[in-house]
Amino acid sequence: MSLFGVSPEKERELRERMASLGVTEDDLRETFTRSSGPGGQKVNKTSSCVHLVHTPTGLAVKCSRERSQALNRFLARRILLERLQRLRDGITRARRMEAEKIRRRKRRRSRRAKEKVLAMKHAQAEKKALRGRVKGDDE
Questions:
Q1: Coil, strand, or helix at residue 63?
Q2: Which segments of the chain does DSSP mark as H helices, in order?
Q3: How far is Cα 53 from Cα 62, in angstroms, rounded to an integer?
Q4: What are phi and psi of 49, to 5 degrees?
Q5: What band does 84 get if pLDDT is binned at 50, 70 and 90?
Q6: Can you tell me whether residue 60 is helix, strand or coil?
Q7: SS3 call for 42
Q8: Nearest to 65, CA basis, from 74, 53, 57
């Protein structure tokens, strides 16, 4: 019987992935709480929600997707490994930088910047005014 209630292949893949990322079971702190949401009386009576913390990094994951505690333990480990992988690859940093870029774009302009834009607009308007028809004596 599998420890997490999944097929032996899936459990083996999880163990291999943990080994490749250098995560051991000793690095993980696991607590169980009662779930909420769909599942009826079953989730109200059993502590099937898994709270998993990777102690070296402080990364925490909560999983209450399934009614089974064993399956939630498996899913929480998978989610945690995915986050660790992203953290190591620097994807999270790239996402944070992209969000900051968008935030800067949406930020309101300072008074000085507004004045500068307005001055540029006035200069452009003056250039356009000079492009008009040349008025001669006969008109």
A1: strand
A2: 8-21, 41-45, 69-89, 91-106, 111-130
A3: 9
A4: -80, 130
A5: very high
A6: strand
A7: helix
A8: 74
Q: Please count the residues of the chain.
A: 139
The 3-state secondary structure of 79-98, one letter per residue: HHHHHHHHHHHCHHHHHHHH
One-letter amino acid at 117 equals V
**What confidence score (pLDDT) does residue 137 get?**
65
Own/partner long-range contacts of 27-31 (Cβ < 8 Å, ≥24 apart): 27/54, 27/55, 27/56, 28/52, 28/53, 28/54, 28/55, 28/77, 28/80, 29/53, 29/55, 30/73, 30/76
Tokens describing residue 40: 């009826």
Asked if pLDDT for residue 1 goes beyond 60, the answer is no
**CA distances (Å), 133 to each of 52, 100, 120, 137, in order?**
75, 48, 23, 13
User: What domains does the chain contain, in order, with CATH numbers?
Assistant: 8-91 (3.30.160.20)
